[in-house]
Amino acid sequence: MSFWRLIIEDFKTVKKNDPALHSNFELFFNYPGVWALFFYRISHSLYRRGWRFAPRLISAMGQFLTMVDIHPGARIGRGVFIDHATGVVIGETAIVGDNVLIYQQVTLGGVSLSHGKRHPTVEENVVIGAGAKVLGNITIGRDSKIGANSVVIRNVPPGCTAVGVPARVTRRIDGKAPLSHNIMPDINREIFEYLLKRIAVLEHTIKTGDLETMEKNDQELDEVYRNFIEAMKG
Predict the structure, then answer these.
(1) Residue 205 in 3-state DSSP?
(2) pLDDT in tens, 28-42
């Protein structure tokens, strides 16, 4: 795809992903994520040709105007949408695949001062929630979701959801529309509920001596626990 067709596609992507868009006027003046990609596409094109100062200057101008910091060395695919955009940081060796949805305050950062690949690779059709930090040379598998404010420091397999600090991976995914990023498993709540039910069973058995009921409840709770552990396997 040619350079200008890629930029045009960036603008069209907003129309596909944001129902709040009502006119082209809004697109040009109210979507810093689009303009951040515009400045990035120009600076990246020069960066690939071996230029260094000019791409960083263009990148700095884009950062000043949009409050989005995308290094010109990063590789960003087609159909990427940076919604609201403010505070997004994408490092030099980051790779973002096609049709990725990124919300405000997201960081694709590094944890190493060494040269070479030190930023994340985000594969196709990934949703990264607001405030999430994806750090290091790790891979976020295609069709995965990163919960808001999560800190991801390990690989996330394809089709999984990662939530928490540090992020924990679950294989459960809602399977609904790509924008259903608010439907995330609450891992901490689930394990606390399990523990509380287990304690309640033990207390009931101590008071009543009803071993038959305890055995039945134990079997049900064991099934819940096995499902929880299976879901956590990444």
Answers:
(1) helix
(2) 778 889 999 999 999
Q: Are strands 168-170 and 161-163 parallel, antiparallel or unpaired?
A: antiparallel
Instruction: Kindly state the average pLDDT of the residues 62-90.
Output: 94
Going by C-beta distance under 8 Å and a sequence separation of 6 or more, which residues neighbour residue 163? 146, 147, 150, 170, 184, 185, 186, 187
Does the bond joining 32 to the residue before it have cis omega, within 30 degrees of 0? no
- Tokens representing residue 140 in the block: 């976020």
Distances (CA, A) of 190 to 5, 66, 185, 225, 229: 47, 40, 8, 10, 11
Q: For residue 10, is it within any domain?
A: yes
Establish if 155 belongs to a structural domain.
Answer: yes
Q: Does residue 181 belong to any structural domain of this protein?
A: no
Question: Whose structure tokens read 């919300």?
Answer: 103
Q: Taking the model in full, what pTM does it have?
A: 0.75
For residue 84, the 8-state DSSP code is S
Structure tokens at 79: 């159909």
Return the residue matching tokens 């596409």: 41
Residue-level pLDDT at 187: 65
Tokens 């404010």 found at: 149
Which domain covers residue 14, as residue numbers? 3-170
